[in-house]
User: What shape does this take?
Amino acid sequence: MRVGQNSSSLRNRFCFRFAMHSGRITSLPPDRSDRSCHFSQISFSGPDTDVSNPGDLQTFRSRVLKLASTASSKLPSLWKERKDKDAAISIDELAVYLFQSSGSLELHAVFELVRDNNPYLKKKSRQKKGGELVFTFRPESQVRELEILAQNSLERSETREMRLARIESAIRGGDESMLSDEHREVVAFIETLSLSVGSRMPLRKGLDKSRNAQDAFEVMSRLKVEKTPLGAFEVMVMLGRFKKHENLHLRRSFLHPVDFSTEVMEELKKKQSNGFVDVDKKRRRDLTHLACYGIDTSDAVEVDDAISIEHGFEPGEPPTIWVHIADPTRWLDTTDQLTREALRRSCSVYLPTEDIPMFPMPIVESMFSLLAKETTEALSIGFRVDEDGRIDEDYEICTSLVSTQKITYDDVDALLESADEDQVWRDFHELEMICLKRRAWRTRQGASKVDLENPKLRVEGFDGESPKVSIEITRMDTPAWNIVEEMMLAAGEVAGRFCTKNQIPVAFRSQLPPKELSEEENSIPAGWAKSVALLRLMRPSEMDVRPARHAGIGLDVYSQVTSPIRRATDLLAHFQIKAFLRGNTVPFSTANVENYLMDIGQGMKQIRGIENRTKRYWTLERLRQDEKEGNNFQKGVVVGYRSQDKLVIIVMLESYATQINARTLFALPLGTRVLLEILTAEPRSNNLKAFVRKRLQ
Assistant: This one.
């Protein structure tokens, strides 16, 4: 160690300790007399180390602390081997034993381990001036006493400088095992700060004045990151607690952590191994003779509805349409951990990076899904549609057995366009005709339909540095989508009628009529701008135990029951309806259902926010990647205005089917096609800047 110009070379392996005060260094040599100098006056040299600036010295110090932390667990073993032998051990021998080397780094690490009342070793007086540090092994009684004292006072005795150095070292090395409980409190503050990235929730007042906050900000300064939520996020990525593309919207939600608890998974295993008595076994109607079509996307796993058509025996007799619904309550009780967790989760969540199911996927695939086995249990709703499109009063709801075959939306659309005219074609052709009647009838009842293309984002390799974002735009106005939509709405109408008639408390959905179009909105040409304008006029739907008209779909009563694997309200309805069919008292009273609906409604609202913000994040990431590759121009349609002067506009991007804000130098009518230049796209800070460069024809 050398101090200023008058420095004297210290003996090899002679260790000084230093404390820093306002840019000055106070040395604490063995004689304990304080000496001060400026940090810039100090340099360090050893037999194999030469440090000439403060930054290098701090790095060396961090390396010493990290190395020391890896060896602390070896001292008890050494003590057990040598405690009964009346022998001493030098600092060189300790370094070789612990690190297989006795260089400067290793010697300083040893000194760090043994310098402050180490419970296993005590310093022995030097035999002669300038001799090496030598240690002897403490007796067992003293070790036990010191272990207890060390355990109780370790965190209290650690200086702030040491504490901060250890935290910094742990973060730089991505090693949480170096952190004590006290250190973790500082890291917890940094994590809390990082979770406010993109959130409107401010930090609790006064929180930034706590000791943990001050330590956290000092650590962030040492790590050379900004003392902001984004800087805190960088620290969490360094530590390895967050990924680069960590979903903070999900992490700060009620769904985190997304994995199912040990109790839920243990219950699942018991059900898979022991089964569960089907109390409806004798009542189930065998409908396995009917062709049962489960229409869904190619990657769907939670297949919870299917459709059949049963023709009458009399000429001209209208067919019976059957909507078959997966029957998870065949395996569940209302008090099960699985049931409680599903109600807590509210619904399944579908994100570009992952799907978060309402039930564990192993039980969905092996027991709940209509595709779980060749013959599965179901809750079936049968009804007939008259020539006007109304549903007759002689509908039927029963527990059943069905045999489902999966078919994709694309397959159904291709089938209807073909000329095969086999039985499957005839079934779907007839279903299409019935659905057209239903759609026309609902329209006459005031139903309104807004057709918007649905963007489906998928991300591959989101854990890595360069995730691949793909966007698939799905048309939802094809015959196959219309068949599924109309049949599910019809099943919901029948369930609503049944529950209203029999006073069964379930979740009824309702909606007031939309607002009227303004003169300007009426003049918007057909297309995206018109669809967005119509969508803005729609009022929010409501959920209540009291039935009311749903103007948006043109039905006097409506209760969703067709997705009990994916929606908690549908699951509740199944418990209620099946209990009534058995002649039992329903398990949930009106008050119970009201309480559940309040919780489920809040959960679903938060989940919609997570889904929307996550899609926004990955849309910006895709735009950022495009811009980085030189593809920073996008075509779109003006669908709205953000400012009164109409110079900040809302544009629907054609290749993304997503709305973004953009600036323009001149007002543009709704429906105008434009060419945008993407100037900035920063997903983590939710920052997007786009400018209209050209009006397109």
Summary: The first helix runs from residue 54 to 71. The radius of gyration is 35 Å. The first strand starts at residue 2 and ends at 3. Residues 1-36, 38-43 have pLDDT under 50 and may be disordered.
